[in-house]
């Protein structure tokens, strides 16, 4: 059934997408190819046997090392932790450089990066994480969370980690970083872990970060987590995890980050493909580092459990000036979502969505104000977030059950939401598939399906047609 569905999508996608962005066609081919390869039961054997001839590694820095120079063996069995640690130390001693990882499966415990550093993964190179949590470091909770996301107290560190760095590049010829998350997911479901799981790649308090032309897969927890970083570029990255039973394997989670671009990526994971965050309740309010000036474009994403692109729910430091454009969300539970709750504080404002395509999505656009997960009982329920200045332009799709569900509340009304140029084919023939509660905003021109009564209507030239009788009308139906 799934194979038949994928074939239908592949036949449909090029024709449909050519009417919007030619780039989507290329991303579909690349994304589905990666997905089929990754799902193959013989994937590891293919990695070992189907290797391209090893050409010379490009020199991206003046000084370059090969991981084999430090005694590493790429057989998937040898523990190469000491080799990676020695290699990074050698780069640091030189004041910067490049570490090349050739074809092979390079098993290692978690290791740290250094500044002025390029980690280059050749075609068919896999850096493979040990799956024994006893070999992963334990770290204090993030200061803007004050609490491990899953357990009180410390958390496991990430597989590849960096703090207080500058000028770091992770790139290659689409080599892979594999977190071997299967063991972690099983222990999490069985409640056998004492600390919050660690991300696959986490870079903290750093600047001038570039991550491009690699595959990240099977993270124990969030996959790529830039935390309180500036000037970050993520481009041409494939991120994969099973769409079910791989809990909290978010693709990319910008967290209190500034000046960031995410583009030309394919993401199919077990939670949000992208989730923009900025801290959790009183800890995020106190840390006070917003996520701002983030551009997300030219993506194909999938999330059967959560959403394609989310903001929140941990957004207590604020989220602003976000642009999401040229994004296809397919076979997902939700497409784009903003989620928050009383106690979060902070704000979500100046968010622009344009040229979105939804295919076979249960709910297209979601804004939710009662996502009540809290680190502990010490949060202030009167710390109310604000949500305003959100625009949706050029939204298309097919096979969508509920195109819009915007659920404000009396204490958290949603202000200044704009819809323009929207045509989404629906699968459910009920009248109220464009659902609203406590939302103020406008519709410019005609859109399909018909908007809720909470919104003012303007014609194509921006002239007022009619004002809403009440922005407080509640028309939310979770049975759809």
UniProtKB/TrEMBL annotation:
Q: Which GO terms describe its molecular function?
A: polygalacturonase activity
- Its transmembrane ranges are 21-38
Q: Where is the Rhamnogalacturonase A/B/Epimerase-like pectate lyase domain?
A: 65-107
Transmembrane helix: present as a keyword of the record?
yes
User: Quick one: a GO biological-process term for this protein?
Assistant: carbohydrate metabolic process
Provide this UniProt record's keywords sorted from A to Z: Glycosidase, Hydrolase, Membrane, Transmembrane, Transmembrane helix
- Give the matching InterPro entries: GH28_Enzymes (IPR051801), Glyco_hydro_28 (IPR000743), PbH1 (IPR006626), Pectin_lyas_fold (IPR012334), Pectin_lyase_fold/virulence (IPR011050), RHGA/B-epi-like_pectate_lyase (IPR024535)
Is ATP-binding there in the keyword field?
no
Q: Which domain of life is it from?
A: Eukaryota
Q: Which Pfam families match?
A: Glyco_hydro_28 (PF00295), Pect-lyase_RHGA_epim (PF12708)
| SUPFAM superfamilies for this protein | Pectin lyase-like
Per the record, the similarity remark reads: Belongs to the glycosyl hydrolase 28 family.
Q: Which PANTHER family match?
A: PECTIN LYASE-LIKE SUPERFAMILY PROTEIN (PTHR31339:SF44), PECTIN LYASE-RELATED (PTHR31339)
Q: What is this protein called?
A: Rhamnogalacturonase A/B/Epimerase-like pectate lyase domain-containing protein
Give the originating organism: Saponaria officinalis (Common soapwort)
Lineage, opening ranks: Eukaryota, Viridiplantae, Streptophyta, Embryophyta, Tracheophyta
